[in-house]
Amino acid sequence: xxxxxxxxxxxxxxxxxxxxxxxxxxxxxxxxxxxxxxxxxxxxxxxxxxxxxxxxxxxxxxxxxxxxxxxxxxxxxxxxxxxxxxxxxxxxxxxxxxxxxxxxxxxxxxxxxxxxxxxxxxxxxxxxxxxxxxxxxxxxxxxxxxxxxxxxxxxxxxxxxxxxxxxxxxxxxxxxxxxxxxxxxxxxxxxxxxxxxxxxxxxxxxxxxxxxxxxxxxxxxxxxxxxxxxxxxxxxxxxxxxxxxxxxxxxxxxxxxxxxxxxxxxxxxx
Length: 270
Hints:
The chain is an alpha/beta fold. It is 30% helix and 19% strand. The chain has a five-stranded parallel β-sheet with strand order 3-2-4-1-5, with helices on both faces. A five-stranded mixed β-sheet has the order 6-7-12-10-11. The chain has a two-stranded antiparallel ribbon with strand order 8-9. The relative contact order is 0.15.
């Protein structure tokens, strides 16, 4: 059996009882390490699970999945993912590849930012399409995600913005060499995301401005969780500390309970 097990928001104890039982009986357990990050570290997981984990980077997941599937027809093999297994299309693709090979599969769900974002007080059923904000480069500055934010606003919905993570990304120079070299890890902050959004709205003035209310979230589900409610301009200068960060663009009109809950994270009267 091939398992994809969600391990929650990062604390070793976030694993479900079902997930832990599976981990303990598998012949191999991989830790997918590029669609999200672990704030607790791999060693902490290994200590709590009482077994060694095999680190699986992008290259292994996307190009060498046969190594992961080896023997899964007759033995139990698991891939652990931060959050929920279906929080990233990568894991959906992995599941499809396993089924194409005739390998029986099972998913163990867990909490992810997709539902834990409600910790800020905005109601989950009022969220529209989730968007991803990528790092810009000198030659690549996509802004198509902004149209989705505007569409959500027009429908009276909130937008969860997932911020870019760059882990084990090969440098452009090394792509033409046999030996791969990698860029230092980078994790987009709410300040960086807000700065990029402000560049977009300066070129596309309208519904969203520098004074639009936004919600910044950092390390959701951890003891150091931080939530800040302020304007987009203020968020561009706000330091929420270490990753992971997420940004929410709320709807124009908020429910009274949403306003009351958000108020505790704002220095100003909402």
